[in-house]
Amino acid sequence: MADEEHTFETADAGASLTFPMQCSALRKNGHVVIKGRPCKIIDMSTSKTGKHGHAKVNLVAIDIFTGKKYEDLSPSTHNMDVPNINRQEYQLINIDDGYLSLMTQDGNTKDDVKLPEGDLGEKIQEEFDEGKDLLVTVVTAMGEEHALTYKEAPK
């Protein structure tokens, strides 16, 4: 019995990776988890109820990190997981070995965010090499963290 009292110690301050929401309450441009991935809903339609069934919601969504397209069909009365998404801006202070070195609001450094692949990563590297002050937006969802956008810091 004594072991059961400590089952919640590993939780992250009570923060959950997802929360349930009834399918009929989801909206376009909102977020949803499809096939275990955090996605942004780009299209949704509801079919009429059948002779014996529930209205079905057809969701089309894009993975917020990879851009991959997913589709899902679910009864409108069922719950679906919605990812908790956190968006944070950091000042870029260095790029080292494929990782961004970022300064947090409280002055600490954060060195565990990868330089994005493709055009975005190349542009960040290029503008950083030109000596520009950059603010990088890091999005965290379901235990993953990615730099998704950046802008030049105001002077």
Which SSEs are present, and which pair or pack?
Elements: E1 18-22, E2 31-34, E3 37-47, E4 56-63, E5 69-75, E6 79-83, E7 85-96, E8 99-103, E9 109-114, H1 118-129, E10 134-141, E11 144-152
Antiparallel strand pairs: 1-6, 2-3, 3-4, 4-5, 7-8, 7-10, 8-9, 10-11
Please state the overall shape, judged from the principal axes of the Cα atoms. elongated
- Return the domain count: 2
Order of strands, main sheet, comes to 9-8-7-10-11
Largest sheet: 5 strands, antiparallel
The average pLDDT score comes to 88
CATH topology of the largest domain: OB fold (Dihydrolipoamide Acetyltransferase, E2P)
Q: Kindly report the name of the CATH homologous superfamily of the largest domain.
A: Nucleic acid-binding proteins
Level-1 CATH class name of the largest domain: Mainly Beta
Radius of gyration over all CA atoms, rounded: 20 Å
Helix/strand/pairing category: mainly beta
How far apart are the first and last residues' alpha carbons, in Å? Answer: 60 Å
Order of helices and strands: EEEEEEEEEHEE
Our estimate of the beta-strand percent is over 45%
Residue share in helices?
A: under 10%
